[in-house]
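Long-time lurker. I teach an intro course on protein structure, and each term I like to show students one example going from raw sequence to a predicted 3D structure in token notation. This year I'd like something fresh instead of my usual example. Would anyone be willing to generate the tokens for the chain below so I can use it in lecture? Attribution to the forum is fine with me.
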Amino acid sequence: MPNWLIDLIEQHSTIVLFRHVFPDMDALGSQLGFSLWLKNRYPQKQIYCLGQNNSLSDKLGFQMDEVTEDVLKDSLGIILDTSNASRVDDQRFTLCKQTCRIDHHVQVESFCDQEWIDDHASATCEMLALYFDHIQASLPKKSAQLIYEGLIADNIRFTISTVREQTYDAAKYLYSQGVDVIEAERVNFNSSLLDYQYETLVRKQATVSNKFMYAIIDQKEYEEAGLTFSQAKEKVYVLSGIDEIEIWALFTQMEDGIHYSASLRSRTIPIRDVAVEYHGGGHECASGIKNLTLDQVHEIIDILTKRRVSKII
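-- Reply from a regular --
Happy to contribute to a lecture. Here you go:
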């Protein structure tokens, strides 16, 4: 546990929390859950959450804050669930007086004054829960709820390879703080009728080749279905859970109508190296890439089609 974290927090009267672009539930859960704990424990401090508002933050009932550069220059910036500097949603984090980072991705660069990286953790929310348990913190119920929702979202209900004994310790602690597990399930895994219909489209578009399943979705298709790019690109999970499939990927055309993002997933076969080759990153079995040309999309499809079971970790 990072003994320096509380010291840093207590040295600053203003704390600004950041996370990655196109945030998932682990990013928002860690950012918002941490901020609620800070506000509860340090009511005299100014606490802000920065980044673009999106459909998930709207669903959670939160609006991101707006601050001036003068506020940032005298603040502690805490960057959560973000593997590299270019992915921080609000690049003004570099203006902060001091910065620290809490993240569970494989370390590809250091860009903060202090960093706590644990790539064995299943989620950044897991790390926060273990930390709060370690310092015997009492969490506001909403804070615990957000962190638990981030935990089970990133480890897909405790089913991925980075789930460990400490993952369940984190869940146990959060449950003791009043988590509603039924609500957490609804937030993360229930679908609207619109989502259901779009997920059906993704499945219909899917192609299978050598235990690899993929779908390529164009901007027109998800917009006609009533989804934004950030909503559409998260639907990679609809290709999962098939016995015969070892690797799956969703390629979603970006808002510029030209480039594609890639969400790559596998059960046990490493795919992070493919993402890194195309300037992306993530975890061994869950990675992402942005700004791909259609030719690059087909190159990646060819690579993953040929990836053999011998590469199982």
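Some talking points for your students: The radius of gyration is 19 Å. The CA atoms of residues 59 and 187 lie 8 Å apart.
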